[in-house]
Design goal:
Blueprint lengths: L1 H12 L45 H13 L1 H22 L4 E13 L15 E16 L4 H68 L4 H35 L21 E2 L4 H5 L2 H21 L5 E4 L6 E5 L11 E3 L3 E4 L7 H67 L5 H35 L13 E2 L4
Antiparallel strand pairs: 1-2, 2-4, 2-5, 3-8, 4-7, 5-6
Helix pairs in contact: 2-4, 3-4, 4-5, 4-7, 4-9, 5-9, 7-8, 8-9
Length: 482
């Protein structure tokens, strides 16, 4: 009969109260708008993302990102939180095993002769006694209903969530740095365009001034050209201010004081890489924010089990002091056989009435889980929105870039013709001014669109989780112009 009882206890101990975790489904479309294949989401939070910024093949950018990864303070905070979460798993696991402490005490006490009588036939006497005790103390909660195991399960999920949060912080940091860097390069190119235009305008001002002095140009022509030069000079100042502020933002990201940080201007824009967008579903699953939301569901589900365990008794080995050891009135006989003592026992605690507290705690845990499910599904929806925006954005910018380049070529021809006609005396100077302003506007627009292409590419890479390792052969790709 005793063996049957132990078998029953073992069978119960093998179970844990509360629901076993199953990842909820998330509705996803069959394909992206540009007919890119898509599969149901199933987050893979441990997949490698790699150094995705290296796809841009910019050595300066690579060095900046490495400096950010080495010194950024927000990333260090996330790393500390990750280490903390992993240590919490160790703490939770420790309760699966007995706790053993070593206790030693020495006491000398005098007993009062006037204390109450223990027996009326025996008078009391005042005595002085020594007591020496040494031995281990063992305490252990028998996890019969799985409360401790559910806590371990929850802390493991929380540690995995912290790992995903660390990856998300890393992704946000690198994406912000790369975006700021390409904004800086776009400003470099735009400043170069305006400065080049300013040089031409100043040459034109010299030409108009000489014609005005000779009586071949009106004062209006001179004043208009002077206004154009002054306006372009102001634009250079404003663009350089924007560049300085952007440079300061990069300095903060790479953990360097802004006054001691600088990046040399590079006017020539780089080439936009070809980005794969016909990706298997597990690529989006690697998004760390999706992984974090999914792990949050697992942790919340485990907390439901912990809350439900309060309906059942808590059974512990009695924490007697000590459980096994030696006690004696003299140190010389402390470790002799007659001084040995031991005790073992179990204690069980069962809540009979708590005014609905346990039921309310279970309800709180369940609602926390439902909220985590909704957060996960909303995160997946947001991820799909970002990827779709990135794909359509690159396609639209690609078409706009082609049109902008064509517009620059047309504006350049118009300016050359107007300038030659004015020099030949068959056109008024207003035609030159108009075509010159149109050319500058078109050139700046082309530079801005090219910069937006880089920023959108970074946005899409971030939306895809920051990388695409081990892609199958034959993926559809989104071609972008250089």
């Amino acid at each position: 009969m005793r063996s049957v009882a132990w078998l029953a206890i073992a069978a119960i101990a093998g179970c844990a109260v509360g629901p076993d975790y199953e990842r909820p489904t998330a509705d996803v479309p069959a394909s992206w708008q540009p007919e890119v294949p898509w599969q149901p989401a199933a987050p893979l939070d441990e997949a490698l993302k790699g150094n995705w910024w290296e796809v841009f093949q910019d050595s300066t950018l690579n060095r900046l990102v490495q400096r950010a990864l080495d010194g950024n303070q927000n990333l260090r905070v996330a790393a500390a939180r990750l280490d903390q979460a992993r240590s919490q798993v160790t703490v939770a696991k420790s309760y699966l095993y007995p706790g053993v402490d070593l206790q030693a005490s020495a006491e000398r006490a005098k007993i009062s002769a006037n204390r109450p009588l223990a027996a009326y036939s025996t008078p009391n006497a005042s005595t002085v006694q020594n007591e020496f005790v040494v031995g281990p103390t063992v305490s252990y909660e028998i996890d019969l209903f799985g409360r401790v195991r559910r806590e371990v399960e929850g802390y493991k999920a929380a540690a995995q969530q912290a790992a995903a949060d660390f990856e998300n912080t890393r992704l946000i940091l690198t994406a912000q740095l790369v975006s700021d860097y390409f904004t800086l390069r776009e400003l470099d190119a735009e400043i170069d365009v305006v400065k080049h235009s300013l040089t031409l305008e100043q040459d034109a001002l010299t030409f108009v001034t000489s014609r005005h002095d000779l009586g071949y140009a009106t004062g209006l022509d001179l004043a208009q050209q002077q206004a154009l030069v002054q306006n372009s000079s102001a634009q250079v100042e404003l663009l350089e201010l924007q560049r300085a502020q952007n440079e300061h933002a990069i300095a903060t990201l790479v953990a360097t004081p802004a006054p001691s940080f600088s990046i040399a201007p590079v006017a020539a824009p780089g080439n936009l890489p070809v980005l794969p967008v016909g990706l298997p579903s597990d690529l989006l699953q690697r998004r760390p924010d999706v992984a974090s939301a999914e792990r949050a569901m697992a942790a919340a589900n485990a907390r439901v089990g912990v809350a439900r365990a309060a309906y059942f008794p808590t059974i512990e080995l009695m924490p007697l002091i000590p459980n096994v050891g030696w006690e004696s009135a003299a140190v010389s006989s402390l470790f002799s056989a007659p001084s040995q003592l031991w005790a073992v026992g179990l204690s069980a605690t069962q809540t009979l009435f708590d005014a609905g507290r346990t039921r309310a705690n279970v309800h709180i845990a369940e609602q926390d889980y439902y909220a985590a499910v909704a957060t996960y599904r909303q995160t997946v929806l947001g991820a799909m929105e970002e990827v779709e925006n990135g794909i359509t954005g690159l396609k639209s910018l690609d078409r706009a870039g082609v049109q902008a380049d064509a517009g620059v070529e047309s504006a350049q021809r118009a300016f050359d013709i107007a300038n030659e006609r004015y020099k030949g005396g068959v056109a008024i100077y207003l035609d030159v001014l108009t075509t010159q302003q149109t050319l500058l506007g078109n050139q700046r627009q082309a530079v801005q669109i090219h910069g937006q292409q880089f920023l959108t590419a970074v946005y899409l890479i971030k939306a895809l989780g920051g990388g695409w390792q081990n892609l199958p052969v034959g993926d559809q790709r989104l071609s972008s112009r250089n």
